[in-house]
Specification:
By secondary structure, this protein is mostly helical. The protein has 15 helices and no strands.
Length: 372
Amino acid sequence: MYDIKKRLQQLQTEVDTAYLYQRFAALEEDESVAQVFRELSAVERSHAEHLLLALSKVQSPPPKMPGPSRRARVQAGIARVMGYSYVLPTVLDTEKSLANSALLSRQQSGQPASGAEANHVRILQNLSRISPAVTGSQVSKIEGRHKAVGGNALRAAVLGANDGLVSNMSLVMGVAGASAGNKEILIAGFAGLLAGSISMALGEWLSVQSSRELYQRQIDIEIEEIETNPEAELKELALIYQAKGIEKEAAERMARQVFDNKESAYETLAREELGINPEELGGSAWEAAITSFILFAIGAIIPVIPFLFTSGPSATIASLAFSTVGLFGIGAAITLFTGRKVAFSGIRQVLFGLTAAAITFGIGWLIGMGIQ
């Protein structure tokens, strides 16, 4: 059975990815990498046109080609401000998931493959065939962007604010449930804010610094191997490209091009053999720690604000109202990664957060009753 709703969703995804790849190309300073993004965009547009043609045969009136969704435009805005490495991993993961789902659906219905790529490796394979000028270092750069820390950093930003909001809202509600005074609630709220923020910052600093040290050690070993046995490393890189689905001759050509420049060879082998993006080593552990502190604090201050201006039940109700708005906003932000409806994700986040607050309020109330 032809699932029109699912195909319309897939059409929108193809349109969005084509739009975002074009935006990435405009932001990329390296013209060779920008050209790869433009070709990726062209591939996605052709998939969208194929889907639209198929839909026009089963739907009346026939659908029109949609424009980029609001979600895609927000992602493009993030890419413009923060860099596209913050968005690309999410785009590629979503694209891969939907493409694999479509392929599975065709297999289950006994239909032949439509020619759409099953995953990002197939995209690279197609590009290597239709564009002989695509080099190994360019492929590695695209792969490096895909594995970049950016997407995880953006997720961490949303989740850090969420942790601060939910944990401190639960703490504030627990203390309020125990019938504590306004002063005690404020002390608990700010103590929770500072303790959580410092803990998050310290954990992020240790994580980033440890990763930097480990990655640098692995890269140093790889550099030593390139210096002592370059031929073996060249063959190994060519085999890695072949494992991606690139034809043997093209893989060997790309590997030789990479080794024409030692710096290019170091960076490419770090990405391809070690799975390390050298750009990650430029990140600052202190910057990550300060960012984590601020993001957690932003979330944690929301439920405390009303108690700065009022007290009693009205402050508690206002705190829940402020927190509800914050939770819905975080749920809406999460849709950048999940692709779910804003209302669904926002309401789900609100329900989870308020449930946690209700539990801690109840526990606080029981404790308060017990110690009276």
